[in-house]
Design a protein that fits this description.
The protein is rod-shaped, with a radius of gyration of 36 Å. It starts with 7 loop residues before the first helix and ends with a helix. It is mostly helical and 165 residues long. It has helices at residues 8-80, 85-164.
C-alpha cells in the first residue's frame, strides 16, 4: 500500500505541524483555565468584600445606637442637676460643635459609600469583560477546531482521490 505522503519529508512536515497545533491547542486550553480561575477568584474576593462592608456598616450602626443611648442618658442626668448659666451656654456651644461634627461625619460616610459603590461597579465591569474574553477564547477554540477538521477532511479526501487515480 502507498503512503498518503509523497515523501518522508512531507510526513515529517505534517507531523511537525500537527505537534505544533496540538501544543497551541493545549496552551489555549491552559490560558482559558487560568482566566476562568481568575474570574472565580475575583467573584470570591468581591463576595468577601461585600460581606465585610456590610459587617462594618452593622458595627457602625450599633456604635451610633450606643452613642445615642449614652447621650440620652447623659441629657436626663444633666437636666436633673442644678446648672449655672455659664455652664448652659458652654453646653449650647458644644452641641453646635457636635452637630457640625456629626454633619461632617455623615457627609464623609456618604462619600465612602459612593466610592465603594463605584468600586463594585468597576469590579462588575471587569468581571463582564473577563467573561467576554473567556467566551471569545472558547469560540476561537471551537472555530479553530472546525477549521482543523475541515483541513484534515480535505487532506483525507485528496489522499483518497490520489489513491483512486
Amino acid at each position: 500500500s502507498r503512503s498518503p505522503f509523497h515523501s518522508p519529508l512531507e510526513k515529517v512536515r505534517v507531523d511537525s505541524e500537527e505537534r505544533v497545533e496540538k501544543e497551541r491547542q493545549e496552551e489555549l486550553n491552559d490560558e482559558s483555565d487560568y482566566v476562568i480561575e481568575d474570574l472565580e477568584q475575583d467573584e470570591d474576593d468581591e463576595e468577601d468584600e461585600v460581606y465585610y462592608e456590610e459587617e462594618e456598616e452593622v458595627d457602625e450602626e450599633e456604635e451610633e445606637d450606643e452613642e445615642v443611648e449614652y447621650e440620652d442618658k447623659e441629657e436626663v442626668e444633666y437636666e436633673d442637676e442644678y446648672v449655672y448659666e455659664d455652664a448652659l451656654e458652654d453646653e449650647d456651644e458644644e452641641e453646635v460643635e457636635y452637630e457640625d461634627d456629626d454633619e461632617e461625619q455623615e457627609l464623609e460616610d456618604d462619600d465612602e459609600v459612593e466610592d465603594e459603590d463605584e468600586d463594585v461597579e468597576g469590579d462588575d465591569k471587569e468581571l463582564a469583560s473577563n467573561r467576554q474574553v473567556v467566551d471569545q477564547i472558547k469560540y476561537d477554540q471551537s472555530t479553530y477546531k472546525e477549521e482543523v477538521e475541515e483541513v484534515e477532511k480535505e487532506e483525507e479526501d485528496n489522499s483518497i482521490a490520489s489513491l483512486e487515480k
